Amino acid sequence: GAVVSQHPSRVICKSGTSVKIECRSLDFQATTMFWYRQFPKKSLMLMATSNEGSKATYEQGVEKDKFLINHASLTLSTLTVTSAHPEDSSFYICSAGHRGEADTQYFGPGTRLTVL
Amino acid sequence: AQKITQTQPGMFVQEKEAVTLDCTYDTSDPSYGLFWYKQPSSGEMIFLIYQGSYDQQNATEGRYSLNFQKARKSANLVISASQLGDSAMYFCAMREGQAGTYKYIFGTGTRLKVLA
Predict the structure, then answer these.
(1) pLDDT tens digit sequence for A53-88
(2) Alpha-carbon distance B103 to A57, whole Å?
(3) Cis omega before residue A8 (within 30°)?
(4) Where are the beta strands (DSSP E) in chain B?
(5) Which residues in A have their CB inside 8 Å of a CB on B?
(6) Which one, of B51, B101, B97, lies nearest residue A31 by Cα?
(7) pLDDT tens for the 116 residues of chain B, in order
(8) Cβ contacts (< 8 Å) between B99 and chain A: which residues?
(9) Does residue B9 sit in helix, strand or coil?
(10) Strand partners, A24
(11) Which of these, A39, A97, A28, lies nearest to B35 by C-alpha position?
């Protein structure tokens, strides 16, 4: 199956700082990547759709200035949580679509963000 | 209204037995995809099985099979010969829209516990 990596796997930061999370498709090209947020024992909430070479599409209620997404290449998308606050603490997961397999979404291992 | 409904928050199954995890969906799109993912305690989302809306036969992948009943809008996951390692959270997901504008919607999940 297709492999998606995510870095870092875990990050702890102080309130007010910015944190960048990288999502890479390792063995395939992904024109579209998705960013999700998952609260403890809850389902995945789609935050935004990241399109290579164009602006991300944000879901309703997600602040685009707070969660900056850059999809610089066909294998890399980044999510930057700007001026992080404790309420931003969560599990962030990215996924990338593999066109050759019915656009099956393959997920990264996730990043656990803790804002102190 | 919920687009993906998983009515079983938790399930128990005896090792080596089969178990069915329920999923119903709601869409007016003629073309859609249905997915099941497994999320162990480590947090990663593992793709298990895919069913396209036009697929005539139920999808199967090893011990996983998808009981697709289009008229009832259900896509239940059947795990045969359960193993202890199957204990995890299971999410049903639906892909809607057209290529390039896909949206993926997740259910609330079912926590499966396999008993020795």
Answers:
(1) 888 999 999 999 999 999 888 899 999 999 999 999
(2) 11
(3) yes
(4) 4-5, 10-14, 19-21, 24-25, 33-39, 46-52, 60-61, 64-69, 74-79, 88-96, 103-106, 110-115
(5) 1, 31-32, 34, 42-44, 46, 49, 91, 93, 95, 97, 101-110, 112
(6) B101
(7) 569 999 999 999 999 999 999 999 999 988 899 999 999 998 899 999 999 999 989 999 999 999 999 999 999 999 999 999 999 999 999 998 877 677 889 999 999 999 99
(8) 103
(9) coil
(10) A5, A76
(11) A97
Burial, A86: exposed, middle or buried (Cβ in 10 Å; 0-12, 13-18, 19+)?
exposed
Mutate one of A23, A99, A103, A114 to test the B interface: name it (highest B CB count within 10 A). A103
Cβ atoms within 10 Å, residue B75: 28
Contact A104 B37 (CB under 8 A): no
CA–CA distance, A52 with A58 (Å, rounded to integer) = 14
Judge whether A20 and A6 are in contact, CB under 8 Å.
Answer: no
Comparison of pLDDT for A95 and A97, the residue scoring more: A95
